[in-house]
Amino acid sequence: MRHLLSAADLDQPQITEILDLAEEMSLVQGRAVKKLPALRGRTVVNLFFEDSTRTRSSFEIAGKWLSADVINISAKGSSVSKGESLRDTVLTVAAMGVDALVIRHHASGAPWQASRWIDAHVLNAGDGTHEHPTQALLDAFTIRRHFRHFVPDLSSFEGKTVAIVGDITHSRVARSNVLLLNTLGAEVILVAPPTLLPAGIDSWPVLVCTDFDQVLPHADIVMMLRVQRERMSGGYFPTPREYTIGYGLTRPRLELMKPGAAICHPGPMNRGLEISADAADAANSLILDQVAAGVSVRMSVLYELLGGAE
Amino acid sequence: MSGTGMPQAWPEDARPGVAGSVTSRVVMEADQIARACARMAHQILEANRGADGLVLLGIPTRGVPLAHRLAKVMDEIEGVRVPVGALDVTMYRDDLRRQPTRAVGRTDVPVEVEGSTVVLVDDVLYSGRTVRAALDALGDLGRPRVVRLAVLVDRGHRELPIRADHVGRDIPTRTGEHVSVRLTELDGIDQVSIEPAGNPDHGEA
Amino acid sequence: MRDLLIRGADLVGRGRSDLLIRNGHFLDPADVDGDVNELDAHGLVALPGLVDLHAHLREPGREDAETVESGTLAAARGGYTAVLAMANTTPVTDTAEAAAHVAALGVRDGHAQVVPIGAVSKGLDGVELAELGLMARAGVRLFSDDGHCVSDARLMRRALEYVRAFDGAIAQHAQDPQLAGAGACCHEGEISGKLGLPGWPSAAEASIVARDVQIAELTRSRLHVCHVSCAETVDIIRWAKQRGINVTAEVAPHHLMLTTNEVLGYDPTFKVNPPLRPTEHVEAVREALADGTIDAVATDHAPHARHDKEHAFADAAFGMLGLETALAVVLETMINSDLLTWAEVAKRMSIIPAHIARLTDQGRPLAPGEPANLVLLDPDARVVVDRNESASLARNNPWHGRELPDPVVATIWAGRVTYQKESRVVS
């Protein structure tokens, strides 16, 4: 595997391999010596044009536990006519001699453009509103573990329904999850007010519903997306109150969930807006498991990209 | 025959076999494998003066069922329960970068390695590099009191100063040849054969 | 300067004839007298020199991207003898002095006639009228805030009314900022949704045009619609013309051929305002150009320095080169598909643009007494476009690597050869 830019880059066997490997990697967390030598001598640069302590440290730990040398660069996005072009920034970093570039950028498509300019492996850590493949992988890892409580060794999500609820238009987590969950055979239902559904949604391999209560009893997994209050100034919905009543995972809605269903959220959460405190802390909430899964899954992906011959 | 490292003449009972091509020859049948396992199980317990602190860690793939067989003998014949697990060494291989990314196997260590007597179990001992990787992997898990090595087949041609403590059979080979170990748990049959050069590798130690 | 005799050209696709040029004008070829330079034009088609209603020459202010000199050299290569230069320079062309400066640069450095376009509003801020009258006295007839939309309806009305006094026209860059803001960079639809790019719906263009044609009707003034990109706008212009509203429209070559699929690779070369649209819109604008609903082809030549394009798609500058390849694209999409004849191309790329811009020396018949502005072309030559071969200083060429016609053989402006592909003029 040369790059991981999109969740669509992976077929089911590859996803299964990555998740299985992540299971092995998760054992490292419990050891006294949290090190595997597999990426010794490799250099990984986290080139983040957008702040994100959580994702960046997750990649940093993942690389270090695999014995790679990890460097964090916080690049300020340069606008036209001011400062370095994206190409210059990427080439400068690559010229220092890196094996892999983990890129997060506020603009969709930046990792694709970077992959055309350099030889190093490129890993998309989130590009604009487009994709966030490692998030989708750690979501799948967490969900798979949850399903395996009922069916050990389950590897396909065939017959399972995942509801993704919230600001789909601006969510790279949603896009990557739609692609990955589809590859794993799940049925995906998107729930949002019409203003937060993207153009061309009819061509996506999903069902769409604007009524959360109708969808909730059928979902095996309810994935809540963060809603930014700034979206209100864009006129996407009138008030937070109206959003919560229509699309929030409130305490009454917990009762509507199917037995055995679980709750996900990519974080950070707006407690009280899209997710109530009760839901976030519920017994069937996988949110903390998602956070814990981040390092293992990213170790797995880094190994897949860098662990073998060039 | 014990693991003294001296090459032997071709075993009298080698004969053309049904495994692979016409010039491959079977060197161990199911009953011989069973006897070798039984003997090794006794030797392990003897060397340790019992089962205290003992843990068997099989190196995937075929070291794992072998480790389970050894544990079963120890339980049936000696009445002692010895913990069994698996130690994957892929990440510690010294040739990782020479091939496309290798898939990683399961690691399952049932007890604390710290202070234990770890017996690594593998099917074939060849260059010794797999065992070196296993020692490194073990080192990151803790500090065993003692590490020993049990292999079903020692085929010679060491590239590192590594030797097995317990050997099922010494089988001299030419470097181009492959020793193929088949176990019922994975392959449906118990058999050790030598395939001539050019046959696909079965992942030797 | 010696006379130039052009032998055997097919004049606007109507038949072979010779042309004689002396002192910048055509003469009866029979009046050949003394030593003469000859140009063998057998097999070539002659059109009146092309006139571009919409180009960004970037000078003054961004001479690293293009200058009047390099831009008009590119124009000459494309068969153009006149270029109208948009006002969004630095400083903005919003005073008579600024307009005169641009015109003077054209006189000094130009390989084609350079006519400045004046801004509609001061500094392109969309709030107050610029000195339209004073600019008109300096020769400006077309006014545009291109790059920005005159979105304030009252300002648009005032501007349209005001320019009536001197037969001016307002050229609108139609983009409702509330429907398609500054970040909108790609047609709003399936692809923008998948790629996570802020979208630009057709309605953002069509709704402004719908409003503007009503205002043009109200004010009885001349409205020109820049770079029509979608079917909805075409329908509105058709309706307006049927009502007798004085509106003209242009289309850019890239909208005649390229679709929104080009942005799938996130290559900012294909980032343009208005954006590339799906196939049904490309077909609609081609039909409109064929039936005259769209009056002219205008290049919207938008050179950019490399460092302004080498950004993430959403951050990169808008625009593509167009002067050198415009005729090739029109030849490929309209002539080779039998949608237009050479005479109709001459109208849409020379005669009508000259009329809209009120240029008296351009778009004239190729006949004795007329100014000698023409382009000679070989309809059959083809080339694989190499952006590094461009006369423009910029390299944001959407046609790079594509096989296109390569028609322009020679361009003559006011009797001087401003471009020839190979040396064809012999003594």
CATH fold category name of the largest domain in chain A: Rossmann fold
User: SSE order of chain B, as H and E?
Assistant: EEHEHEEHEEEHE
Based on secondary structure, the structural category of chain A is alpha/beta
Number of helical regions of chain A: 12
Helix share bin of chain A: 25-40%
* Approximate strand percentage of chain B: 15-25%
What is the beta-strand fraction of chain A? 5-15%
Oligomer: heterotrimer
Secondary structure: number of strands of chain A: 9
Based on the coordinates given, report the CATH architecture of the domain at 30-94 and 101-173 in chain B. 3-Layer(aba) Sandwich
- How many individual domains of chain A? 2
- Order of SSEs of chain A: HEHEHEHEHEHEEHEHHHEHH
Helix and strand composition category of chain B? alpha/beta
CATH class division of the domain at 30-94 and 101-173 in chain B: Alpha Beta
CATH class identity of the largest domain in chain A: Alpha Beta
Concise synopsis of the structure shown:
Chain B has 205 residues and is α/β, with parallel strands linked by helices. Chain B is built from 4 helices and 9 strands; from the N terminus they run E-E-H-E-H-E-E-H-E-E-E-H-E. In chain C, helix 4 crosses helix 6 (202-219) and helix 6 packs parallel to helix 7.
Detailed description of the structure:
The complex is a heterotrimer of chains A (310), B (205) and C (427). Chain A is of the alpha/beta class and 310 residues long. Chain A has 2 domains: 7-132 and 294-306, Rossmann fold (3-Layer(aba) Sandwich), CATH 3.40.50.1370; 133-290, Rossmann fold (3-Layer(aba) Sandwich). Chain A has helices spanning 12-26, 53-65, 86-95, 110-117, 133-148, 172-183, 212-215, 230-233, 240-247, 251-256, 277-280, 287-306, and strands spanning 43-48, 69-74, 100-105, 121-127, 161-165, 187-191, 207-209, 221-224, 262-264. In chain A, the strands form 2 sheets. A 5-stranded parallel beta sheet of chain A has the order 7-6-5-8-9. A 4-stranded parallel beta sheet of chain A has the order 2-1-3-4, with helices on both faces. In chain A, helix 2 (53-65) links the parallel strand 1 and strand 2 (69-74). In chain A, helix 2 packs across helix 12, helix 5 packs across helix 6 (172-183) and helix 5 (133-148) crosses helix 12 (287-306). Chain A is globular, with a radius of gyration of 19 Å. Chain B has a domain at 30-94 and 101-173: Rossmann fold (3-Layer(aba) Sandwich), CATH 3.40.50. In chain B, the strands form 2 sheets. In chain B, strands 4-3-5-6-7 form a 5-stranded parallel beta sheet, sandwiched between helices. In chain B, strand 1 and strand 2 form a beta hairpin. In chain B, helix 1 (30-48) crosses helix 2. Residues 1-18 of chain B have low confidence and may be disordered. Chain C has 427 residues and is α/β, with parallel strands linked by helices. Chain C has one domain (49-356): Metal-dependent hydrolases (TIM Barrel). Chain C has helices at 68-77, 96-109, 132-137, 153-163, 190-195, 202-219, 231-242, 253-257, 279-291, 306-309, 326-335, 342-356, and strands at residues 3-11, 16-22, 25-27, 36-40, 45-48, 50-55, 80-85, 113-116, 142-144, 169-172, 186-187, 199-200, 222-225, 247-251, 296-297, 374-377, 382-384, 403-405, 408-413, 416-420, 425-426. In chain C, strands 1, 2, 3, 4, 5, 16, 19, 20 and 21 form a 9-stranded mixed beta sheet that branches. A 5-stranded parallel beta sheet of chain C has the order 9-10-13-14-15. In chain C, strand 9 (142-144), helix 4 and strand 10 form a beta-alpha-beta unit. In chain C, helix 4 (153-163) crosses helix 6 (202-219) and helix 6 runs parallel beside helix 7 (231-242). The longest helix of chain C is centred in the middle third of the chain and has 18 residues, at 202-219. The model of chain C has no long low-confidence stretch (mean pLDDT 96). Chains in contact: A-B, A-C. At the A-C interface, helix 3 and helix 4 of A face helix 5 and helix 10 of C.
